[in-house]
Amino acid sequence: MSVALAPDPAAQLAAANARIAELETRLLGIEEEQAMREQVLEEALRQAANIIDLSSALSVVSSNAEMLRAVTQFSFAGGYAHAALLYFDLDVEGQPSALEIVEIRSAPGATGSAPRVGTRFQLTEFPITDLIVNTPQSVLLIGEVDSDPQLDDGARVILRHLGIASAIVIPLYAGGRFIGLVFVAFEQPHFWTDEEIALLQTVPNLVIPVADNVRLVASLEDNVNELNAALVFKDQFLAIMSHELRTPLNAILGYSSIAATTASAADDTFLTPEKLRHMMNRIVANSDRLLKLINSILDLSRINAGRLEIVNAPYELHQIARAWRDDFARRVKEKNLEFKFSLDETLPKHVIGDVERLTQIINNLLENAVKFTEAGEIDLKVGRAGDHLTIQVRDTGIGISPTWHHLIFEEFRRVEMDSVRRTSGAGLGLSIVQRLCKLMGGSVGVESELGKGSTFTITLPIVEAASEPEPAPPAEPTP
């Protein structure tokens, strides 16, 4: 018969303590796991809140500045120094050729100077773009410029020169095409957590459609502005043309009516030969004015449409220059002005060019000089500057304020001064002069001050021709 032994209290206590320790360890593990889950959940909620905030901010964006502000505010929490939005310029084949900063934003307290809006970089000056194009990741993270293995020495030199120690590059695509990027610069090395990286990887999906919409809105605004400018141009054109056409037409009709009425009357003593000659001269003069206006409009239309051709052929430069002198000497004399002329005899006599269009340019400039000069002189100088022909038309007229120099070559632009508004003209002459000069490979410049006269200088390349034109081949005998 066996005798049951009483349990050992010490052993029982030890076993209980071991069990309690095991349970406490398991409970601690559960608590730690729960804390980690809560931390992950909180991080996920923060990321979701950031994404929601960013999406909400981007949903009302209508400009590049608003878009960049939204991205930096919700994605980097102010830890950046400078952020820039850059778009590509495309070459003739549609390939990226350069980057231009269209918007830039600096954080409060950021040191160093950021490039200005409008700054352009050639792709060779901004090699980070190669990394974006050639790597599959949607966001490029550069933790430390000095040690990041993604960078080559050239990229490091450029980034250090710009004061950048760390950077984020967010590529932007539209229609599957790389159109630009958001570049975020840090002045200190920055290493991102997995959670930050996860948030950053969502940014392109949110920003790209917004950037596309902003570009579309900007394009539509440009179209609207162009349309409004076209409407203003149309109204301006109609207002000027109605006046410029009506004035000579009224003169032509008036003199013609007087001549016809008087000639049919029984008493023709009023219509003396001298009066008839005067009326006919006025009719011819106004007809010429009307024809010139119509030709100017047609020329401008052909130039704008790219249909005006420059016809180059040999001509005698010295002879043509003296013809300009003879023609305008008479007109200047009629206004009691002094006319001066000089010709550089070292210029080649036989050159190649469009003499008709060159004469049109000189006529426009000399006519303006006569029109706006009440006293003094007009000077025509035909010379050279190296291998270029230079033609200067100088007057002692009313002059032009420097603030108007960049405007006078615009279509239908007339200087807004009382003394000028009293003169006739559609404001086409100088516009045609400038465009013809460009078509002929040259340029036109102006030097003028109000009340001190004006000097217009034409510069054109000299193309020398043979001194004696080649004779035409003999006609073949008729069979």
CATH topology of the largest domain: Heat Shock Protein 90
Distance between the termini: 158 Å
CATH classification class of the largest domain: Alpha Beta
**CATH homologous superfamily placement of the largest domain:** Histidine kinase-like ATPase, C-terminal domain
Q: How many strand elements?
A: 13
Low-confidence stretches: 417-422, 471-479
**Major sheet: arrangement of strands:** 3-2-1-6-5-4
Our Rg estimate from Cα atoms comes to 40 Å
Percent range for β-strand residues = 15-25%
Q: What summary fits the major beta sheet?
A: 6 strands, antiparallel
Task: Tell me the domain tally.
Answer: 3
Kindly name the structural category: alpha+beta
In DSSP terms, counting alpha (H) and pi (I) runs of 4 or more, how many helices?
10
Any idea what the shape is?
elongated
CATH architecture group name of the largest domain: 2-Layer Sandwich
Oligomer: single chain
Mean pLDDT, rounded to whole units? 78
SSE order in H/E notation? HHEEEHEHEEHHEHEEHEEHHEE
- What's the helical proportion of residues? 40-55%
